[in-house]
Amino acid sequence: xxxxxxTALPLAAALALPAVAQEFPDRALRIxxxxxxxxxxxxxxxxxxxxxxxxxxxxxxxxxxxxxxGTVASGYVSKEDPDGYTMxxxxxxxxxxxxxxxxxxYESVDGFTFISTLGQFPFMVAARSGEYDSIGAxxxxxxxxxxxxxxxxxxxxxxxxxxxxxxxxxxGAEFLHIPYKGGAAAxxxxxxxxxxxxxxxxxxxxxxxxxxxxxxxxxTSGERWPDAPDVPTVSETVADGFDVxxxxxxxxxxxxxxxxxxxxxxxxxxxxxxxxxSDKIASLGAKPSPSSGEDMTALIEGxxxxxxxxxxxxxxxxx
Amino acid sequence: MSNNKTYAEESTAMRAVxxxxxxxxxxxxxxxxxxxxxxxLNQMGPGFMPQTIxxxxxxxxxxxxxxxxxxxxxxxxxxxxxRGLIFVSxxxxxxxVLVDVAGLVPSMxxxxxxxxxxDSQVRPFSALIYTVIATFxxxxxxxxxxxxxxxxxWR
Amino acid sequence: MLDQFLLGLSVVMQPNVLMYAFFGVFLGQLIGVLxxxxxxxxxxxxxxxxxxxxxxxxMILLAGIYYGSQYGGSIASILMNLPGTPSSVVxxxxxxxxxxxxxxxxALFVAxxxxxxxxxxxxxxxxxxxxxxxxxxxxFGAPEYAMLVILGLLAASMIGTGSQIxxxxxxxxxxxLGLVGADATTGYYRFVAMPELADxxxxxxxxxxxxxxxxxxxxxxxxxxxxxxxLSVSMRDVIPTRAQARSLAFPIVRGSSIGSFFGALPxxxxxxxxxxAYAMERRFSRSPExxxxxxxxGLAAPESANNAASQTGFIPTLTLGVPGDAVMALIIGAxxxxxxxxxxxxxxxxxxLFWGVIASFFVGNIILLLINIPLIKLWVLLLRIPYQKLYxxxxxxxxxxxYSHRTSVTDVLLTLAFGILGYLMKNYRFEPAPxxxxxxxxxxxxxxxxxTMLLYGGDFTVFLTRPISAVxxxxxxxxxxxxxxxxxxxxxxxxxxxK
Lengths: 319, 155, 499
Prior knowledge:
The structure holds three protein chains of three kinds. By secondary structure, chain B is mainly alpha-helical. Chain B has five helices and no strands. Helix content of chain B is 65%, strand content 0%. The radius of gyration of chain B is 23 Å and the shape is flat. By secondary structure, chain C is mainly α. The radius of gyration of chain C is 22 Å and the shape is globular. In chain C, α11 crosses α12. The longest helix of chain C is centred in the N-terminal third of the chain and has 36 residues.
């Protein structure tokens, strides 16, 4: 009600609500996600929910079930009825969790019907402006005096942390990995000089880079990122074949009938085609990337393999 | 309600009970934390803090027991409110058990009516009317006003 | 600075912007009254709405909800002993006894007015010293945070009305509860008896249980005393006397200063500020025995502190683009969705936005004061409802609030467990407030202490060689010496008086 009241205030654009009677969604749908209200996952869920409710003609409710790196929500969703009314907004952490946890209350790949990825985004390796000339110089410094270069990351077992470990493994450099609670805290530590490098998403890094506080040394995607074509990739500079891209996507419990899954996939793709939605996804640092269910499954399977390897080699404690 | 025991009637065991519970808490904590890796000083493990805190808690508990045994005043501050304890607990448990299954409205209804009985002078009929009103207000506030993502009824 | 501030004011004074500012603070205040349903829920609910608004208006709306909810939080604390946020826990300590002594109106007035003054001090710091404060905040590394937290914990163990050793044990118990869940540094599971506990105990559960539920259990069968005077709502009983007002001046000044400072440090915020302000008042009061019974300075200081902190909390957000807490992260998210990248260049690139938002805080605080004073009457009337008719609603608000926070049944059951614990604790003269601060600060302490050891190779001298940290160590040492000295001194006095 409060929401409607505010929307009804002057200057707020009127919401177009096409009421098309349809068979499949005959009641409200849910997007469940495993993170706190207000995180990126929550925001993306709400953007999608807003748009999908228009195409599906039913309200789409966002439900946050945070806990244990999103695994509480995944466990919950995988056990829900595969009737098409329960969706999950997944993030790259879904693949990390499969590698990081000793036992999970669900099957990370077989327990779900994957619908489509929504956006893909690389990480950026950043240092204080002027500190290192290039990513090569950074790796040299880390090799010259092992453990002297400190990388701040957003938490043990985060994709950011594992990316740093992977960088160390592939280049043979030795870093001191310092955990912080979230990318913002790590970024503050970089500004204050407590750590030398931070690997995080564009939303954390780019504002500082644009202000001249940070230099972006490299980007973790396999190829140069359209949004930042001047930034060299890790792959072309110090570690050939290095390719880390995280993602957000929509999944459902395993066993959703194909026609319903297709309908949801259609609604997701339609939503991503709306400029207002794709712009917002892009503003969060991601490239809108509608995909097929098979592509999403393949992406997740590939990442589970990579992270399992990194966790074993880097000696990160499993949970 | 005032306390119905005098200082002389309070036994040694009763005087030590609060510190004792705290001591048990500290020891249980230490029991579990003992197996956690402590690491080294510059790579502290996850066990360092729990063990330190467990030891500190146990020591403080012992100190509190000693102080309570020698204290000139009563250890227990007042009589127990059994009725409130039982019915309020029951109401919250009913809510917790039902909300995922039956939805918000039935669980609110039952929780309100059960909690009403925490008051010793409740009259069943007025309790029922009150409960209907309270449930309606709750529905209005949480589901209509705040649009909380909780289903109103079972699915 | 001033002409830029005037530019900001000209933005806010446009009628439609002003309307959103009003709506934001008003809604925030309402949400703040509801325990458990915090500013985060409200803001994330309204996030889609901001897609249709421009960046400045969105930010003004969302920020208004945030600091408006700080005002609202104190209302529930005073009237029903329900602290919706950790920073309003301290408000319960003096506010609730006042309400029980028929002085709810006075308590609400003092809380609103000190909140207003604290907020205004916070805004002034934001206008005049945002940049220098940012520089100081960046000097706070892991060692400084660790020492700051120790100082806060020492202060917390001094806020109880009973013995210091009991309070200190409760702080430690709070830290112990804060250890439950995955260890932040290694991800190792500690005391995780069930998977729902992997992320630890919810603060909302703990606060609602220890304060709210325990109070309902105690009072469900309470009858109003036969000779009780009817609640008075005349303005004369609401406004403090001249002498009372004078006694509040310095507590508010001290509270606002403490709040402004702590708010500007990312990640510490309003909770530490309000506890520190309260502890400081108690320590340096000439009549410490009055605390805990409804002592006005003990209400005014933390109220001004947490509102000052909620304003200066925007300093790292606005000047660096670094969110200090979850709410700030949400507000930054809204900005990003509007195509504005918050960061160090915000002030230069978007002066209308930057100064407009700051000016909206100024206006918003005035609006809050203006809507709060008349509402006091209404809130006090709420207390005319006999407690027997009120408590079932309180139970429901707690249940729904806690449940909606993480959609977790376990959290609701834990709230009950903490309610029973809180009830028993009070029966055995243990205070709940230090538990809560230990719970909030414990993880911060462990996190920063371990990070310090990791960064500086296990070298303890770093705490003394870094200047800010050394000053904090000195403060802590002073507090300990002072506590020991005063307890020895007190013991002597009691001995002499019993002879």
